[in-house]
Write the structure tokens for this entry.
Amino acid sequence: MSALLPPIRIAACGTLTAFGNETETLAALLDGRHAFSLVPVLGRDGGDPVPLALCADRSYDETVPPGWLAPLTALAARIPGQDWGSPRRPVFVTSSNFGVGSLHAFRRTGDPAHLAYGTPARCVEWLATQFNWGPNITTFSHACVSAHLGLLQASRVLAAGLADEALVFSFDFLSPFVAGGFHALKILNADLPAPYQDRATGSIGLGDGAAFAVLTRDRGDFTLAAQSLHNEMHHFTANQADGSGFAACLAPVVTAAAGRRCWLKGHGTGTLEAGRLETAALSRHFADAPLVSWKGGIGHTLGSCGLVELALATAAIRAGRAPGTVGGNGPTFTPNVALAPFALDAFDSVLCTSNAFGGAHAALLLSHV
Amino acid sequence: MFERWITALHTEDAGLEEPAATRERFKDRFPKNATRRMTQLGLLVGASLEPLAPAETDTLVYASAFAESRALEGYIDSFPSASPTLFQTSIHPSAVQQALIIRQQAVRQFFPLTGGACLPAQALQTALLAETPRVLLCGGDERGTWLLENAAASGRAFAFALALSRTPDGAIARLTLAPADITSSTGAPFDLPAFFDVLHTRRAFAGDIAPSLRLTLDWL
């Protein structure tokens, strides 16, 4: 829990999804659109069709250089300021994939050029060169809560006075490597995701995603008012059946949210058991707060989802309107799941949550100053 | 400058040992049947962490440059019939999760890092900024096969775990981390194997471990 931290400001943030930037993505979600296409899970090698939300004009199969470099470079060009990666302006890179799909491509093709992006260190060093960043880069990887770790550690570095500003940068792009894994786990099938919907079979959709946030102590009109983590270590792919892991993560944030008028941006991938536990835990404390998931529109952006959806939440707050839970059409696990867009005039904060393998949970409270 | 005290340390230097040998060596350290499913890195990290008795109130920081290299190799080679078990096992930070799921040991704050030449510096800074009274810092890598041949895996297997405290009671070493002159030479990269060797041999150390960070380590 970060109760000891002073509130940290967000001076700038932005995102990239299959729809485009945060403005384009917000508009699409408000329209209730999804970005999925059914794509053979193994790419050029075929396989079952699965719903993937890929950025435009890039190959799903790995290329040299990776096809995601161009859109990621365009996103990085929007980051304000200079000297990122210098001693007083650290960078916190988070991802669950990095360029690991390139290792699969190397094994499949024998082309050693793919190796330049395959390990996390090589991938980040290569990106740092592309983006002209210095060496002060810390890299976290904790599956789908990765971005939250970057936000929390960047906040700590700022609170300790070790930096003037901090950049959190997250990216996850799909490949046969990662989609093949989720398909093998039987949670990625031909169905489109319907987060929080009470139906017979759960399913997720995966999406390309990247985002950045510039954190400061005193600049910007959004505040990270609280951040919380919890790791159940109960099972690799399941949560404690009593929902205690969700509750443990939420507890400190519930305290910080007292007196605030919150709406909820949940994790909501479309799996059934996790969806039931998440909605129950959130409803216990925020029964009247509208709850949304956007993964039915943009897909699950994996380790970057926490930052991608944070950027979308800030865009929604600026626009005064939050997208509903795209992909769902009821009945939902709890009555507070919002399927349609809603106005944000009555709210001053949003609680954003993410979950990951190993029963990892993360939450943050975002307030508009 | 940050100052912390190392109150416990455990290291495992498996070197060039094959996973099967590591598994046999640790078969009595973990519940029956568990070692069969664990990776070499999971065994080594688990054996290093276990004496420190991780608790929910600890902050746990984990550093690995390559993580589960053998599971990653196996997962990639399982295509086109991708293995769900190897996919799940290959995901960072599987090694720590293997060890703690066996113990059903929740931990509130868990920071898994990866990286290259400055990984120990980044992990130490993460550990030293943690809010909890006790912080566990662990790490390691396992030896790859075809990934190693392509410089995408570690050439040796090793793991360590240490406990950091804000007070010197019962300490075995004093550790400081301070800003360094950015123009000073960092010398040889202080990567994870280099940090492991300092810990394993309990060698005193004073030097730049990143362009702007200086580490001192004095054994008591």
Notes: The mean pLDDT of chain B is 95. The longest helix of chain B spans residues 40-49. The beta strands of chain B are 2-15, 59-63, 109-114, 134-141, 157-165, 173-179, 205-210, 213-219. Chain B touches chain A through 53 residues (CB under 8 Å).
